[in-house]
Amino acid sequence: MDPKPIKIVVYICNNLRMFKNGDQKKFARSKSGLKLVSIPCSGKMEAHHLLKSLAGGAAGVLVLGCAESACHYLEGSKRSHRRAGYAKEWLRKIDIEPGRVQFRNLAPMDISAFEKTLEEFTSRINSFGNIPPVANNQTV
What we know:
Blueprint: E1 8-13, H1 23-30, E2 34-39, H2 47-55, E3 60-66, H3 76-93, E4 101-106, H4 111-128, H5 133-136
Parallel strand pairs: 1-2, 1-3, 3-4
Helix pairs in contact: 2-3
């Protein structure tokens, strides 16, 4: 019997234009445990959204944004990067690996960089093992 796949949530800035119509769902289905969420801008992500994803059962949360110099909304990627840092600080305070949250800048339409980032992130999350019970007891 195969072990249950870990759940990873990936928030993707729409301005990265990673997927054509319908391709996002196909990609997500090809990777067990993966949930892709399109967002208008990575700057819309707040630290509590990332923590809530972990409390809801995700083993890791990855946020993908535009390069800071190419952000469609000018400051979105910078804000998101800072907010991921805040989420990591909270994880440290409750003795959960801060590496379960990651922000990454990518170039638009660079699906190979996305796949490589996802592979590396998944490998890191697998090395952590199960999320501590303190996080599993949270309500969503």
